[in-house]
Design goal:
Layout (H helix, E strand, L loop, with lengths): L2 H13 L5 H9 L4 H9 L14 H13 L3 E5 L2 E4 L1 H13 L8 H27 L11 H10 L4 H19 L4 H8 L12 H8 L6 H18 L22 H11 L4 H8 L3 H14 L11 H14 L5 H8 L5 H9 L4
Antiparallel strand pairs: 1-2
Amino acid sequence: MKIKHVIVLTVLKRFKGERTIYGAYHLLQGKKSAQTIQDGHYYKLLPYFGLFPKIKREEMDTIAAACMESGYLKPCDKDCYLVTEKGDIAIRDTQAETPIIRRLNGFKYGRTGILFWQRFTLFIQSLTQLLSQSGSFIPIIQDRAIQKWVKARMPNQKNKRMNVLRQLHIELKQLLERFPDRYALFIVLQLTTEKKVGYTSAQAAHTCGFNVEDAWIIHQAMLHEMLEEMEKNEKKFPVLQVFIERDSKSAGWTKSADQTARLIQQGHTLDQIATKRKLKRSTIEDHIIEIALQQPDFSIKPYVTEEIKHKIYAFMKEKGSSVKLRDIKEALGDEVSYFMIRLVLARKEE
């Protein structure tokens, strides 16, 4: 079974019919909206956030139809689905066959992983070409910003270039030793040097015995695991660290929410921020949800009293953690707003 189909099934399984197929689409595409980010947190789906940035709504419909035809899904409401027992088995079997997908961490490392790979591969190509003194070459990455980044960090002396290349070899070997041989080969085959042109992802997948359509997912999962290892052991990977974008908010925190956060730090109220930024209060509330989700030390006390917070928790404990927002609102009445509920859920106690 295609890994992409399994991931869609996994997202829909955790939605439990409470979100539509298009909620899954927005999450997999990496839509930077407060609702999508909150869904990712609430349903524990952030590993899949932004995994398929180019996916289309039509493809989601096609995947859902194929999964229904195979008996993995059944409709439960308009555009909502439940995963069948057969679908559960398919998810478990695929995860057992390709355990690397458990290492996906799209929300944290999605954009960082892509940027790391582009910088790293172009640096390797450029460095080996310069050392070989073989003249001009066509860069494998055409992005001018990436080219500029690599050029700015290229050592200007031959002995320094040799030292960097040796260290990169040592560090990459240490990272790849944690994977089975064919996975390590899958990465190495895609590297371009002065002696060889790197394989495309599809070519490398074919050589290593992977389904070509699964290659992107396997590649991302490996990059995410490598980045996590580098984060845990920074001193072991001093050169590779340079290729990592150090922007903790790059995965999901929108620029607009960042502007709101700065105004909050300056002491402005939500209404003042809405007026100042010429936005609806509801939009500012969405920003607060984003900030609360991404900053564990952000205090929600100015917006929700302890009494209301405990009432929401108590109702969820009684009805189950999958209770809908509407159910909480109807039970607690006018003393709570949807904003308060969403904010408390953003800090949902385990």
